[in-house]
Amino acid sequence: xxxxxxxxxxxxxxxxxxxxxxxxxxxxxxxxxxxxxxxxxxxxxxxxxxxxxxxxxxxxxxxxxxxxxxxxxxxxxxxxxxxxxxxxxxxxxxxxxxxxxxxxxxxxxxxxxxxxxxxxxxxxxxxxxxxxxx
Length: 134
Description:
about 130 residues; about 70% helix; mainly alpha
């Protein structure tokens, strides 16, 4: 599948995972939820997780990550550099690939690594998980 199509799916899957994680914090106002979500889903944050993820991937996963990063139709928004945006597209392609393959446990494992990198980078404490259950 086209890596940009994988990134399209991965973006949605990751956004949902972030929102679920934030809801576990409890009753935060919508503005606060949105502000925290942006910290997780921005290209800079996903790019920061890229290098850490590279050391955790199988060869097949690494290939998907590289294909997403190297997609030629990518245009970075003004809020990030081209390198950050390409790397974040690679991360999203990987997440979309795992989702479409039905590898939910692996998807959650890699998402947890991404969350940890982002939380360390923003000095945020990990969210407590007792406030919201599915």
